[in-house]
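Appendix B, Record 12. Input sequence as logged:
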Amino acid sequence: MRHVTRSRRRTGALTRVLHQDVGAPDRFVENCLIASRSEHLAQHHARLTATDRRFEETARRLLAPGTAPEVTHAFCAATGPVVTAGPPDEEPAGVPPAARSAPEAVRTGRTTPDDATGTGPRP
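Logged structural output:
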């Protein structure tokens, strides 16, 4: 996981910590702090190298068989954006127009199978 740490920091994470769950010692939680939504998108789309992908694939092999990483995204409540969910066919309230083209998970914090970006592996 040291390689994943270096990759996350090289691609834009300000901090990256791997926590072990005391109540479930086989569960690990990765926490990365990224400066902005655009930095997060660049981290996954513009800066990720083949070597970074191999590190993530190696980390995914540590997952318990039949499991997948649980990926969530959050914004600082003090600095925004404040995102609230509206009806499924509407854009969530509080999302600025420039962010509306961002992937669903980045806009709302909701994850989909396509959002398995490796930010949250549970080895």
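Strands lie at 13-20, 28-34.
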